[in-house]
Amino acid sequence: MTKKQRKLLNRIIIAAVLFIAGMIIPHILPENSMTTYVEFAVFLASYAIIGWDIIWKAICNIRQGQVFDENFLMMVATVGAFILGEHSEGVAVMLFYQIGEWFQSYAVSKSRKSITSLMDIRPDYANVEREGKLVEVDPDEVQIGEIITVKPGEKVPIDGIVVSGISMLDTSALTGESLPREIEEGMEVISGCINQSGILKIKTTKEFGESTVAKILDLVENSSEKKARTENFITRFAKYYTPIVVFAALALAIIPPLVTGDAFSEWVYRALTFLVISCPCALVISIPLSFFGGLGGASKCGVLIKGSNYLEALANTQIIVFDKTGTLTKGSFAVSKIHAKDISNEQLLEIAAYAESYSTHPISQSIKHAYNKEINNSRIQNVQEIAGHGVSAVIDNKTVLAGNAKLMNREHIQYEPCTEAGTVIYVAIDNKFVGYILIEDEIKDDAPFAIKELKANGIKQTVMLTGDSDAVGKKVAKKLGLDKVYTQLLPADKVAHVEELLQSLHQTNPKGKLAFVGDGINDAPVLARADVGIAMGGLGSDAAIEAADVVLMTDEPSKIATAKKIARKTLAIAYENIVFAIGIKLIVLALGALGFTSMWAAVFADVGVSIIAILNAIRALNVKKYNTNPTSTTTKTNFSTVSYKTI
Questions:
Q1: What's the longest Cα–Cα distance across the chain?
Q2: What is the DSSP string of 325-348?
Q3: With CB atoms counted within 10 Å of each terminal CB, which end of the chain scores lower, N or C?
Q4: Which of 414-418, 621-625, 643-647 has the lowest mean pLDDT?
Q5: What percent of the chain has pLDDT over 70?
Q6: Residues labelled as active-site residues
Q7: Is the CB of residue 356 less than 8 Å from the CB of residue 384?
């Protein structure tokens, strides 16, 4: 609880005690003028303690030309109640209004806390090596290329590459995942993570202002500035609604007694009740709070949404378009199949690993990772790389050829062609074909779950755009159950396809939205063109943070489904509050105008509805039910070690 909230709570308690005393006084003191004065003095003291700031705000706003707001309504209604002799009701209205304000303040603090908890990632200092000494400086003073030392328990202050040391990094403040990441020499690290064990020496690759932590903080601080259409509607609604009800109340106080001849006091009381009921607090408070809670809930799940307008767009998304490499697949090659002839699969993999042992090509690296044993270089002789074909080597005094189909055809070796999509390495020993190894870009562990969850949460169509071959693209799409796939595309082709999908969507459903999910580097044009651009594994990617509307802080496609669930729930809560608040107010307004309600009913219609709407809005912060991905604790991020499938 903040200091301001504590002060308001103390005022509420003191005013409530005096209010109760004022209610009891007529029952414990004799009926005379002195008792009446004491009762009035106690109620007036209670009113002054609880309502002075509202009165002062109303007066200040009137001076500035802002007359019609909730402060003005509260002041007129409560002062009017005192003038009419309804002291207890005047105090009650102000007291319960302030209770509603306290609930609002507490709710906002609670939802803001989930977002601003990210501010803990801001480093206080950096340890820099200068002239052979370790100097503690402000992160802003560290230049690109300097060596910083991060001790156990300290935050990584600036993005860089580890030049020495092995450690585990706690990335939970950034990704929401509790599983630490193993970091070693040569690996990239991003600012905001906490070093858990060993001492790391890091060569900085960015200045602090351009580092990941600075960009994330900027996103968080400005995320609430972009309002959703629903929020803008409420702002416009309140702007016109308040003066209308003020003049309606004025008419209610004057016209009926002139027509009917009734006492003015009765209709003035009804008009004051009408004013209290009409106060738009429930809408003005709860709708922005609903979206603020949604943004906070998403950040808890490791999803940064740049504004509530994108949260609303995400809730209305019907088509999701995916890039393939780095989005649905890991972007790293791995052995997926071994087909041996006349020797065992283990022998074939061993021969291929030895033949490829001197190559740094990603295909060769994937075979060596799959073999996962130490290579005895004394067994290898006469290694030759044949450009565009493969490699030749003498292993255990046998000539081994490992490469593509062109290599087999060039050496006139009869082989069994592999018809499956992927990169195929054919292997021959002494000009005799002994089998092939199929290598593919691995599908991410949670990609199938992500597609299934998206379809279960209102996505009508899933599309994949890829520059890869037709066979590879269709194979991945079939495995994941995607609706459409377009292959062999250039970046400009991807934009054209998104344009077509947008046009067809808007023809059938003008309110429907299209989201594009990419790695944020090569896909920046498409991210910018889509209704919602989602950067996958965006941490550390400048292009992702700049071009995307939503940044996923991990490499998990399932987080898109999580964000979609949060967006839909947030929008549902906002609509619930709108219908509930307006519905109750219209009913009680009608009853108040007819004289069937008192100030007490007005208090419920205003403060009671506000509190209920606020409590409903807080539900957007409940994220436990959204984290349903069974593979989320094992998924690797873009800055962790790359894992390869082992045969």
A1: 121
A2: BTTTEEEEEEEEEEEESSS-HHHH
A3: N
A4: 643-647
A5: 80
A6: 323
A7: no
**Cα distance between residue 591 and residue 609, in whole Å:** 16
Give the model confidence (pLDDT) of 73-84 as tens digits: 778 777 877 877
pLDDT at 164 over 60: yes
- Backbone φ and ψ for 90, nearest 5 degrees, come out as -60, -45
CA-CA distance, 295 to 117, in Å (whole number)? 13
d(CA 46, CA 32): 22
Could you tell me the pLDDT band of residue 634, with boundaries at 50, 70 and 90?
A: very low
User: Which residues make Cβ contacts (< 8 Å) with residue 441, sequence separation at least 6?
Assistant: 324, 325, 329, 330, 331, 332, 333, 334, 468, 472, 476
Q: Which of 603, 47, 623 is nearest to 282 (CA)?
A: 603
Q: By three-state DSSP, how is residue 51 classified?
A: helix
**Among 309, 275, 353, 303, residue whose Cα is nearest residue 537:** 303
Per-residue burial over 473-495, b if 16 or more Cβ lie within 10 Å, else e, is bbbbbeebebeebbbebeeeebb
Token pair recorded at residue 150: 């991060």
Residue 647 has pLDDT above 60, yes or no: no
> Taking a C-beta distance cutoff of 8 angstroms, is the pair 323, 517 a contact?
yes
Q: What are phi and psi of 200, to 5 degrees?
A: -115, 135
Measured distance between the N- and C-terminal CA atoms of the chain, rounded to whole angstroms: 55
Q: Where are the alpha helices (DSSP H) in 29-69?
A: 33-63
Q: What one-letter code names the amino acid at 597?
A: T
